[in-house]
């Protein structure tokens, strides 16, 4: 949890409070001054800051620290853009908690820019000298950076709503080989299929509400980013993905080459058809009697073994709050074990169709593992299991327990 400290001040007419997020002290607009009961806090503040997004920023810190380790570079050799920086807390956390990367923090709102400069003064001269604070429209900035002829190693896209307007310009300037792309989407309702027209318009996907909304959302976003990159002869390999109550976050890495881009599009993307709790994976769309086709979406692994193992080694050493750390580690460990298993079984739903009470998820997992199947919980749903067992086996276990 973000720690609110007693220190307050005022800058540029804005009441501020000092907080500690992760291992970093920072000034933010004071929620105690601006929060009105019953309103959504981030939009009540004169500058956008969402304490609920701490875990999202933790994931950026973990991704950057892991990226630094696996790329075997010195921090100064890495340029990281926080494209839509808001208060700038993510960029300063990266400098303070990961290392002296070259961090570019950008926001279209000039108030945010002034505010970032104000916060910058509270950091050491080394940190200040590695922070570049800019005031551009995001796509304009990314297009001009092409003219700087400077390879960009990592870009973080954290918008209001959909990230799609920024992905094309981001992949064009990202290092073609081993560039890190972090993407957040908060338009989860469209991505989980609640608003199919909006999803089709923004992500080019045919989708609908299903019991697998969270995973379909992540696979939709990955496919959208991949499809955008392939036209430049670049593939994007997923490193990890999280679906949390109010946002989706994915991490991807660039791989250059038309051949690998084609392979990812043709062999690892496709469609699914859901029929009576069973998912049929289709490489090409076909009409099914129920017309419940969803796609195109990413069908390959969401979690990269090498990257996630390294992330697990590193997370413990980072100054992230204990609650987030435990959650992230638990999720990553479980998802890694089932990385080759797309989708999951919602035990509660299957039990209710069988007119049985829902057994303890732990007991179903133990029984499946006893029978030799891979079985783990998944962060996508508290009552779901990822397993390579067929539906019939799960139904038998539910009836038995
Ligand atoms: C969700 S907030 C970013 C939060 C921040 N990344 C964090 O971790 O706290 C989105 C920010 O994007 C900025 N923004 C929106 N559209 C933009 C654009 N086209 N170019 C640059 N900044 C933009 C807004 O001013 C806002 O501060």
Give a structural overview.
This protein folds into three domains: 3-44, no CATH class; 51-325, Rossmann fold (3-Layer(aba) Sandwich), CATH 3.40.50.150; 344-400, N2,N2-dimethylguanosine tRNA methyltransferase, C-terminal domain (Phenylalanyl-tRNA Synthetase, Chain B, domain 1, 2-Layer Sandwich). Strands 6-5-4-7-8-10-9 form a seven-stranded mixed sheet, with helices on both faces. It is globular and about 65 Å long. Helix 8 crosses helix 11 and helix 11 (213-230) packs antiparallel against helix 12. Helices cover 42% and strands 24% of the residues. It has helices at residues 31-34, 41-44, 54-71, 89-98, 110-120, 125-130, 138-148, 164-173, 188-191, 196-203, 213-230, 258-267, 305-315, 322-337, 347-353, 361-370, 391-400; strands at 3-11, 14-21, 24-29, 79-82, 102-106, 131-134, 154-157, 180-185, 234-244, 247-256, 269-275, 278-282, 293-298, 345-346, 375-378, 381-387. It contains 17 helices and 16 strands. Helix 8 links the parallel strand 7 (154-157) and strand 8. It is an alpha/beta fold. The chain binds S-adenosylmethionine (SAM). S-adenosylmethionine is lined by residues 48-49, 53, 57, 84-87, 89-90, 107-109, 112, 137-138, 158-160. The site of S-adenosylmethionine has 19 residues, from helix 4.
């Amino acid at each position: 949890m973000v720690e609110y400290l007693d220190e307050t001040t005022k800058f540029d007419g804005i009441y501020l409070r000092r907080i500690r997020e992760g291992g970093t002290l920072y000034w933010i607009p004071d929620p105690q001054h601006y929060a009105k009961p019953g309103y959504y806090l981030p939009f009540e503040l004169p500058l956008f800051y969402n304490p609920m997004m701490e875990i999202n920023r933790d994931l950026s810190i973990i991704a950057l620290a892991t990226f630094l380790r696996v790329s075997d570079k010195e921090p100064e050799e890495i340029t990281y853009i926080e494209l839509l920086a808001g208060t700038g807390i993510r960029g300063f956390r990266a400098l303070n908690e990961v290392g002296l990367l070259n961090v570019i923090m950008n926001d279209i709102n000039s108030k945010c820019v002034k505010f970032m400069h104000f916060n910058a003064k509270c950091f050491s001269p080394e940190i200040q000298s590695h922070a570049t604070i800019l005031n551009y429209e995001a796509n304009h900035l990314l297009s001009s950076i092409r003219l700087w002829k400077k390879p960009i190693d990592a870009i973080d896209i954290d918008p209001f709503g959909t990230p799609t307007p920024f992905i094309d310009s981001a992949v064009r300037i990202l290092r073609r080989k081993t560039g890190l792309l972090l993407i957040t989407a908060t338009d989860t309702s469209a991505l989980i299929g609640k608003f199919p027209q909006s999803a089709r318009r923004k992500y080019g996907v045919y989708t609908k509400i299903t019991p697998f909304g969270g995973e379909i959302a992540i696979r939709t976003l990955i496919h959208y980013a991949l499809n955008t990159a392939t036209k430049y002869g670049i593939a994007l390999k997923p490193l990890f993905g999280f679906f949390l109550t109010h946002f989706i976050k994915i991490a991807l890495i660039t791989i250059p080459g038309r051949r690998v881009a084609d392979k990812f599009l043709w062999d690892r993307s496709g469609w699914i058809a859901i029929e009576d709790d069973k998912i049929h994976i289709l490489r090409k769309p076909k009409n099914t009697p129920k017309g419940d086709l969803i796609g195109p979406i990413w069908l390959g692994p969401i979690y990269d073994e090498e990257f996630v193992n390294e992330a697990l080694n590193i997370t413990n050493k980072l100054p992230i709050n204990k609650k987030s750390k435990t959650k992230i580690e638990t999720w990553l460990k479980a998802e890694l074990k089932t990385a080759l298993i797309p989708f999951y079984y919602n035990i509660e739903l299957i039990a209710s169709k069988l007119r049985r009470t829902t057994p303890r998820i732990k007991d179903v997992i133990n029984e499946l593992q006893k029978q030799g199947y891979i079985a783990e919980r998944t962060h996508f749903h508290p009552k779901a299991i990822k397993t390579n067992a067929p539906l019939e086996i799960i139904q038998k276990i539910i009836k038995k327990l």
